[in-house]
User: What shape does this take?
Amino acid sequence: MKRDRVDLNLLIALDALIAERNVTRAAARLGIGQPAMSASLARLRRVFGDPLLVRSGRSFSLTPLAQALAPSLDAVLADIENVLTTQPSFDPGADRRTFTVMGSDYVTFILLRRLIPALYGAAPGVTIRVQPLVRGFQQSLERGEADAVILPAEFDRSLRRFPHRRLFEDNFVGVVWAGNAEIGGSITAAEFSKVPHLATDQGQLGGLPETRLARLGVRRNIEITAQTFVMGPLLVRGTRLLTIVHRKVAQELAGAADARILELPFDLGTITQTLFWHPRTGNDPAHQWFRDQIAGLAAAI
Assistant: This one.
């Protein structure tokens, strides 16, 4: 295929078609009419010599070629966007940029909520978008949908293929309501397995304490699950429940939650919150500045 045969807008159309697997939805995604998207699909079929999108019952499916094109297409479009947005220098006091960072509720509470006021006056043209850490975050980095991802380095060794920077460490503690008469100032291994627990269920993205307890052969008497670490100390108030949270969260919320912090009778190790980014943004001055702001705040925690 020759470059002079392809309008780059066709690649944008192809990206939408692959993502939506539907001409009408792809058109809506790009804000164009369905006839225009149908025309783009027809041109793409001629360029690639492949139908790309085929009807399968009441829906549409991607051909093997379209499936194979998807990863390369993501990278190409991200590179194009990087070329168009990269500046030889960056002045946070005058330039306008938007940065998207993905992190858990824990990262947002402990670190990112401090980032917004820190940049409010020093970088008035900078917009920060904080997005939850969801499955597929690595693809978000690859596609340029996220400028940075923050999560424990221990979560997945494959993350090390991305450039990264250690931010800070934390560990886990137990938290109970201060008025809990069944548990004193400490807790034994037997008591830990007997008392009712509030557990955090964030699927694959939030299972480090559970994984480590399982390795130790420790059983939990789970009565309630929640999808957030941060709310744990607040949710146990007025109950017999014990929850496991990060020490920094417990220290921040103990007073407001009327909670008592307990050292766990098991060593669940530490977690290393780490900043990951894509190599294509490594030398961009704006991205370097943004990463430095995050690292600077993390150093003060």
Observations:
- The first strand starts at residue 53 and ends at 56.
- The radius of gyration is 24 Å.
- The chain is about 40% helix and 25% strand.
